[in-house]
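(Structure overview)
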Amino acid sequence: MNLDLGLHILLVDDDRLVLATLAASLVRAGYRVTRAESAEEAEESLAGGRRPDLVILDVRMPGQGGLYLAQRLRELDQIPFVMLSAYSDAATVNTATQQGALGYLVKPLGEAQLLPVIEAALARAGELNALRATHKQLQAALDSDRNINVAVGITMVQYRVKRDAAFDLLRKSARSRNLRLAQIATEVVLLNEGLSTVTSA
């Protein structure tokens, strides 16, 4: 049973009976469900700003198929998805995995097969989101440190002082303007890049 009521699942399949059956199972489990009968209809839903927590999509559909939609989901802010198919051959499963599917369901299936895969996919999606957030924080910290080091070097050259004195000048400037050191460093780097561009021109 889904304890976090309100998790939103986008269900994409061209078979209306499959859509109705799976949607009923998911709603009983406490999920909010949006249905789409094609990749195009699913894209319209996503374009409307309704970002799901997970997408369940059929591999083979008329028009743009599930694999196309899987690629679009990866591009659209890494929306997690599970593939659904009547085919369980190794080639299809491998293609789904390469596209980044967090699970693979074979039709026909009941709640006993559906819900554990959905819960595992949602848990994995949460882990991946946490890793991405950590990566962004680390990258921001690295960028900040890089700018500070470059700004110190620029200050050393401009004022003909040693590293410690240059760092102290930047720190005093940050305090006097009530800014963080990283902000002052970014300003110094950008200003120097602007001067370099003018000089080279």
Observations:
- Helices lie at 16-28, 39-47, 66-75, 90-98, 111-159, 163-176, 181-200.
- DSSP finds seven helices and five strands in the chain.
- Residues 49 and 105 are 27 Å apart (CA to CA).
- The longest strand covers residues 8-12.
